[in-house]
Write a structure and sequence with these properties.
453 residues; alpha/beta; 2 domains; seven-stranded mixed beta sheet; globular; binds NADP nicotinamide-adenine-dinucleotide phosphate; binds magnesium ion
């Protein structure tokens, strides 16, 4: 059994990828159990060195990985290069962790009490198609650093960079079986990660619907799970903001990766007194957004991932009040022009995740109204606040129920800072200083020091 990959910018099939069975997963997990025992017993500095070596090999293959992502996912080459470089940086960052996973020494009577951060063993990581390389690395780098083995399932649509990263890990000298990439469907391979007794933790990134199912399966196995799910993030623009800057930055915040970004600011909330002026400034910025061949250096946005996904995105625009649109190439790729629509809070386009280059614009009356509207969603992943008023920036950033916010910026992802969602956007956090610890369980040991009589 195999799966056919299609170049999203041309619609052309170009490669077959095997589909693993549940028995294949079981064999991989058995190898991983073995590899993990040896890995965890290595000196911390040896594990750190191995991860740094992996990072250097990834750095040496940035252009190759980027070219694979252009072909497989239609990411603009400049973005794809950033993504591959980010993987190396994430590995370098967590290469510091094996030597820094310190436990505690707690004062107790009659002896010494010490805690250890013990690895889970084998960690299963399930990755979506929108950012195949980066999201994979947010799981595997800290998991390996903490002494675990990893089995990783890329999305069927976009397995190529993950497969290559698996090969590069071996080239870099990581032990056989420690980091295995298994291609196949979510219902078979992903579900086997959930049900296999030797996979002791699951990291899932994808839709809220599947995430709930994965969490329910993990609950039955008493298995911890990290969930990174969907979003409907707000870009809140106050009248006192630098409107030119806010308007110039807004397209990138939602059209980057053709809107196939869980952090996409897909609702722009604008204070009523600045509403007309902001739209006047937004229109030329949207029209100037460069959509085209992802292999070109200057391209800002490529196609959508698949024909089916384009249909789903288009269904949100049918019947919506379109304000203005950017451009997109003709041809057989899965193109969709950046689209700005007017919306009311109860409209489908203002409530559901589109996961495409479509943004809903809504007016608000005052600060309290802005916070209420921003929170009027089941999601709570990211968001932005544009204001020149410091007190307001503090109040609104504390008032919005989202895991990752930025003020006068749209930056959400830095490997050194925590990332993850509230409400239906997820459970747990990835990245940041504590991520390696999240791949361990605390063991508490009391050593009696009283002489026995
Ligand atoms: P998806 O359908 O939930 O799939 C995500 C991954 O789960 C894929 O590898 C998929 O495999 C696998 N999967 C599917 N059904 C499964 C099951 N029953 N058990 C175990 N695994 C299963 O999501 P998607 O369509 O790929 O991605 C789009 C969604 O992901 C959006 O809603 C987006 O917001 C969300 N997302 C969130 C974040 C975040 O960090 N919060 C990041 C990226 C994406 P196959 O597809 O190969 O069958
Ligand atoms: Mg899916």
């Amino acid at each position: 059994m195999s799966f056919t990959l299609i170049d999203p910018s041309t619609g052309t099939p170009f490669q077959e990828v095997p589909r693993a069975s549940a028995a294949d997963v079981d064999a991989a997990v058995a190898r991983a159990v073995d590899a993990q025992r040896h890995w965890a017993s290595r000196a911390p500095v040896a594990r750190a060195d191995a991860l740094r070596a992996f990072a250097r090999v990834v750095e040496a293959h940035v252009d190759e990985l980027a070219a694979l992502e252009v072909r497989n996912s239609g990411h603009p080459v400049a973005s794809a290069r950033w993504e591959a470089t980010h993987v190396a940086q994430v590995l370098n960052f967590y290469a510091g962790a094996p030597e820094r996973l310190s436990g505690q020494q707690i004062p107790v009577a009659g002896g010494i009490d010490v805690t250890f951060h013990e690895p889970y063993g084998v960690v299963g990581i399930i990755v979506p198609w929108n950012f195949p390389m980066t999201i994979a690395s947010w799981g595997f780098a800290p998991a390996l650093a903490a002494g675990n083995a990893v089995v990783l399932k890329p999305a069927e649509l976009t397995p190529l960079t993950a497969l290559r990263l698996g090969e590069l890990a071996s080239e870099a000298g990581l032990p056989d079986g420690l980091f295995q990439v298994i291609t196949g469907s979510g219902s078979v391979v992903g579900q086997r990660f959930v049900s296999h007794p030797d996979v002791r933790k699951v990291v899932f990134t994808g839709s809220t619907e599947v995430g709930i199912d994965v969490a329910a399966g993990c609950a039955r196995m008493l298995k911890p799970v990290t969930l990174e799910l969907g979003g409907k993030s707000a870009n809140i623009v106050f009248a006192d903001a630098d409107l030119e800057k806010a308007a110039a930055a807004a397209p990138g915040a939602v059209f980057d990766n053709a809107g196939q970004d869980c952090c996409a600011r897909s609702r722009i909330l604008v204070e009523r007194s600045a509403y007309d002026r902001f739209l006047e400034l937004l229109e030329p910025a949207v029209r100037a957004w460069r959509v085209g061949d992802p292999a070109h250096e200057s391209t800002e946005m490529g196609p959508l991932i698949s024909a089916a996904h384009r249909e789903s995105v288009a269904s949100f625009v049918a019947g919506a009040r379109v304000a203005f649109r950017g451009s997109a190439p003709d041809g057989d790729g899965f193109w969709f022009a950046p689209t700005v629509v007017f919306a009311d809070p109860q409209d489908r386009i203002a409530r559901e995740e589109v996961f495409g280059p479509v943004v809903a614009v809504l007016p608000f009356d005052d600060e309290a109204d802005a916070i209420r509207l921003a929170n009027d969603t089941v999601y709570g992943l990211a968001g932005s606040i544009w204001t020149e008023n410091l007190g307001r920036a503090v109040r609104v950033s504390r008032g919005v129920r989202s895991g990752v916010l930025s003020v006068n910026s749209h930056a959400s992802v830095r490997y050194s800072t925590p990332f993850g969602g509230m409400k239906a956007s997820g459970l747990g956090r990835e990245l940041g200083p504590d991520a390696a610890e999240h791949f361990t369980e605390t063991k508490n040991v009391f050593y009696a020091t009283e002489e026995s009589s």
